[in-house]
Structure formats: structure tokens, C-alpha cells
Amino acid sequence: MSQGRDVALSKLLSWSLRHGAEKEGLDITDDGFINVSDLLNHRLFRGKYTLEDIQRVVAENNKQRFYLQTNQDGGILRIRANQGHSIKKITNLDLTPIIDERDFPVIIHGTYWQHWDQIQKEGLSRMNRLHIHFSPGEPSDSQVISGMRQSCQIYIYIDVRKALADSLKFYKSKNNVILSPGNERGYILPQYFSQVVQVSPRKLIG
């Protein structure tokens, strides 16, 4: 398969697993899994992609967005997106709670100038997703797989100790993305920003 078709399949998997499953009539579990056979029999995939295509896209995705698992009960192959969901039914993702700031002393949200005015007034919002996304470092750091686009113009560092002390929840996904549902309104307020950095030319802006 060409690289272009692999990219198209990756985008289709992302949309189906994160946002579109219920709209498309796909059975998705509360931990985010869909049977691969159900996907391949669905109109969006049927006759266009094979099991081997899905396995390759999962294996070669450099951000490790997807996770394949064989269900122990029936030996059925299932697939899940590791994060990024907006489907409210998904409440049981395999996430590791972060309870000690020493485990992740650096948590960063990447954003763009067009969003900064609103963020500095209102804070970070999960919007229509289940979580706000962070990375455990800047994109150039070796431990960062996903969680921030390379093109981000602003890095917002979170005061992890203060946020945890005030009962904000943070979790680590399987591909090392840091996730937080925010407060009861789905926000992390500016009072939890430890510093804000303009990426280029690099300088502190908050």
C-alpha cells in the first residue's frame, strides 16, 4: 500500500475510534475497543482495507496512536485509540494515574498564538474531548512520542505539584501522552501554569 493510503487509513481509524463509532453504528466498548472484523465489514473500510493494512498502520505509526489486542475471552482481535476520544461512553481507558509529581516533573501543553489570548484568560479546555493533552517534555525530548505537534508555537508548562495538591487528575496513556479531564468544567486554569514559553525565538511570555 502506498504511503498516502496508509495515511488515509490512519486518519480513518483515528476518526472512527475516537469520535465516529456511535454515529457509524460501530459497537465500541467502554474501554474504547472495536472488533477489527467489525471495522473491516463496515462500509468505510469494506473492500478498501485488509487486516494486514491495519496491522501495518498500527505497527508503523510513529506516535503509537493505536493499540491492537486479542480478547482473552473469545480470541477476537480488537483495536483502540490510545487517547483523543470525544465519545462519552468511553470511561474505562487503560490509563495510569499520576499521583507523584516526581514521576512526571515536566508536563507541557503545546498550542498556537491564535489560541493564546483565550487560554491566558480562561485556561486550557478539553473542549469536546474527554481530556486535555500534554506531553512529558518538549518535542525534541527522546521520551516524547506524542501529545504535542512539532509545529506548536507556545509551550505551557504545568505546575504539577500545585495541580495535584488541588485534586486535579492526570494520567499517562500507553503511548506516554499525559491526559487530564481538568476541573469540573473541563478546564485547567492559568493559576496552574508554571511558565509559558514562546518557541521561536525562544523566550518566556508568562
From TrEMBL:
InterPro entries, A to Z: Ptrans_KptA/Tpt1 (IPR002745), RNA_2'-PTrans_C (IPR042081), RNA_2'-PTrans_N (IPR042080)
Top EC category: transferase
Keywords from the UniProt entry: NAD, Transferase
Catalytic activity, as annotated: 2'-phospho-[ligated tRNA] + NAD(+) = mature tRNA + ADP-alpha-D-ribose 1'',2''-cyclic phosphate + nicotinamide
MF (Gene Ontology): tRNA 2'-phosphotransferase activity
A biological process from GO: tRNA splicing, via endonucleolytic cleavage and ligation
UniProt EC number: 2.7.1.160
Record-stated family: Belongs to the KptA/TPT1 family.
Purpose: Catalyzes the last step of tRNA splicing, the transfer of the splice junction 2'-phosphate from ligated tRNA to NAD to produce ADP-ribose 1''-2'' cyclic phosphate.
The name this protein goes by in its record: 2'-phosphotransferase
Lineage: Eukaryota, Metazoa, Ecdysozoa, Arthropoda, Hexapoda
